Amino acid sequence: MTQQTPIRRERRFNGMNEYLRTALDLAASGIPPLPLRVGKVPFGNCRRCANNACGGRPNMKTPGPCVCPAPCHAWAAATTDPQVITSGPWRHAWRQAEAVAYNPGGAGLTVVDLDNADAIAWARENLPATQVVPTTRGEHWLYFGRMQSANAVRPGVDIKSTMSYARWLGFGTGTMAALPDVVRALATSKPALVRSAPTLLTLPAGDGECSHRTPAYLERGIAMAEQRITEARSAIHTTVYRTFLAVLSTHGRCGCLTDAHVARLFTAAQAKGETARHCTDAWTNARTTLGI
Known about the structure:
The protein is of the alpha+beta class. It has helices at 18-28, 82-86, 88-96, 117-126, 181-188, 193-196, 215-230, 236-251, 259-271, 276-290, and strands at 12-13, 16-17, 33-37, 41-42, 99-102, 109-114, 131-134, 139-144, 150-154, 157-160, 166-167, 177-178. 37% of the residues lie in helices and 15% in strands. Strands 6, 7, 8, 9, 10 and 12 form a 6-stranded mixed β-sheet that branches. A 4-stranded antiparallel β-sheet has the order 4-3-5-11. It has a two-stranded antiparallel ribbon with strand order 1-2. Strand 7 (131-134) and strand 8 form a beta hairpin.
């Protein structure tokens, strides 16, 4: 018997790849999809962004500052634009996809990812009933409302919303409820923000008062930094780093900054989806760049 080369079978639905069909249906409902390859991970960087030349993180879960249309930046690649979904690099990606994912935050949703039976039991005792989607190992509980994503908020419990993606496994059962405070509290129950901030510099020795201690000058600088982060529409990670760099270049060597100022900057960044760890990394990298 002649051995034949295995032929990959694409899932088809009415002549169209099933994953592409699902993606278009989701997009029409206002849910931004993206394709996943083997292992439930996003597709690799495109040529323009190869080896993370655009500034994206190696695990591809945080996008770089580019506006590349290819599905190479995880949650940031998700879109509801059918033209993007069906053309260019996307068209090729859907042919190789092994699953469909979506950006919950982009659809105004939060997913409480329960990874095992113990986590499910905890949710049933502590969370309001909502729409439930069975997963391979547990359940996804879906709520109306977006929030900061966070991993390992409890044993076997992750929160996926802004700056995150979840595998699409259908609509599940039940009626979706509004995002409760108990879920929001899970992401803020970790160590306080200021505790994660790097140690600040003390005032340098010398005669005279630091000119930056003028309240209006310092307040205006911090307020402008907060505004810059808050108004960012893309490349959040890069914007946060560059903003921290600008603040430190002006106030980092004279001892003006206090924990309260740093907390304001971190809070603005976390409101855009950055984690406390990413904030600390960006702050530390900015100090290193400036030689502080």
